[in-house]
């Protein structure tokens, strides 16, 4: 266990408030069938390679950093939950900006937590690192109540997806840039690998998953090819996609980009995780508290946007001309209409910021 790290991921599956109700998507159904969670040794902790990988430099440039700081600059003193701690780039900037706030950082990835714990050491007891998934936000508040010591939660921040070190670590199988076993788990200690998922998924489910991630015309052909070839490595997955898409129809970039993203989202149950962290955030935030979410693909951004809209209207769809007669009550206001995107300066400095979209809401009702 890392220095100063508290392992608290042993929760049973308690659902959060469920303010936004949505029927399960096919992605969720697909992943839940593949989610007979098997506990296996984590390759990241293998004694021969583990130490070297844990100490490798964690190079992740925080995206929209000044915009994130601006979002939380005026919150009341209290706790900010960083639901996606990563290497603690945003968390350390928040702690440096305000000495009257403390950060509870969550990450499911042991390598990220190791890097974050080191980076946050100078902040002493103002930073707390916990292990697990952010869908368990509400439970973390309970288990960390002693450290929280009655302080209010004045912010929840989520910088979704994977970090640069996760993508760059070839052995984790997130990227088509290097050949590696098809793993894709953010937490290598639990769940099934992408290769195992492919071995158990039905054609219909895989096709729907690919469609949800932008593969429309060739989703069926790609799904069939993947199931026929049963790729076990990243390069075998690229080949399985390549042979299903005619040269003339290939977009810019790698032909398998969307398939990689779709599988990663399924393996890590990212759709359900996002739904639950959004609901959890509304539940734990104090009035005046800020929720800020950075998304990197349109599916995540749409979910966040719709969620904030729902909170801001209380679900009211009454015609404007009549005024609200349904009694809906808003719990949040949305800060600024559209999404916040990277400045031209950041775009040149950090290509990863290209697809980032941040949405911010403020809790108005408890
Ligand atoms: C984009 S990175 C965050 C980088 C961070 N903001 C920084 O400045 O270093 C996303 C992080 O969130 C973690 N993560 C993604 N989904 C998660 C989930 N459902 N629960 C917990 N951690 C998650 C990943 O392991 C990764 O370390
Ligand atoms: Zn209404």
TrEMBL record:
Signal peptide: none annotated. One of its GO terms (molecular function) is rRNA (cytosine-N4-)-methyltransferase activity. GO terms for cellular component: cytoplasm. Keywords: Methyltransferase, S-adenosyl-L-methionine, Transferase. The keyword S-adenosyl-L-methionine applies. Coiled coil: none annotated. Gene3D superfamilies: Putative methyltransferase TM0872, insert domain, Vaccinia Virus protein VP39. GO terms for biological process: rRNA base methylation. The keyword Transferase applies. This is Unannotated protein. It comes from freshwater metagenome. The lineage of its organism: unclassified sequences, metagenomes, ecological metagenomes.
